[in-house]
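ok trying again, last paste got cut off:
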Amino acid sequence: MKNKVALITGGSKGIGYGIAKALLEQDVHVAITSRSEAAANTAASELNALGLNARALGVQADVRDFESQQKAVKQILTEFKQIDIVIANAGLGHFASIEDLTLQQWQETIDTNLTGVFYTIKTTLDALKNSKGYFITISSLAGTNFFAKGSAYNASKFGLTGFTQSVMLDLRQYGVKVSTIMPGSVSTYFNGNSPDGKDAWKIQIEDIGELVVDLIKMNPRTLPSKIEVRPTMPPTK
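nice, full thing came through this time. structure:
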C-alpha cells in the first residue's frame, strides 16, 4: 500500500477521518474533502502532525456539485499524480415522519448520500481505471433495514447499496474493485450526537478504518462486495 493515494469524501471528521488515519498508518497518501476548506485543512494538519511517512492533503469540495468534485480531483491528481483508492463517505441524515419531512430535507439527503456518490465515481473513474484501483462506498444498515421517520435516509441508503453493487459489476472487467460498507451505530457526531463514554458500545471510527485496510489488502482474486457491520453488544431495550 506504500505510496498509494486515496481520496476520502467527507474526511474531516467521523468515519472519513478514521479511515484517513488508518490509511496514513499504512503509508497511503490521503486527500480529504469537506465543504469547509478550513475543516479540510485543519484535519489534514492534525493528521500530518502524527509524523507518519505518508501525507494528508485537505481539499474543499461539495459532493453535491459535480464541477466542485471535478476541480478537487484535478487538484489531487496535480499533487499526487494518481488516485488508487476512493472512499465515498460524505453523508448526512434528516429524520422525520413523511408528514413533517420537508422538500429541502429530502433533496439534501438524496443529493448528498446518493447523487454525491454518483458524482464521486464519475469524476474519479478514469483515474481508478488507470490504477486498477478500489472504490468503496459507506452505506448503512439503513440501506437494508427500514424504520419509521427514515424515509429520506432509507431511500438514500437503499439506493446507495444497490448503486454500488451495480457499479461493482460494471467495473470489475477493468480490474477496479468495488465494495460497500454498511455500518450500524458508529460513535461520531452524526445527527447531532456527541461521542462520549456512553458510546463505548458503538462501532468506533478506527474500526471502520481497520476494515477498509483489510479490504484493500485482501488478495485481488477475492472481493467482499457488501459488508454489514454492527456493534457486538448493543444495549438491551
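cool. Strands lie at 5-8, 29-34, 56-60, 85-88, 134-138, 177-183, 226-229. The first helix runs from residue 14 to 24.
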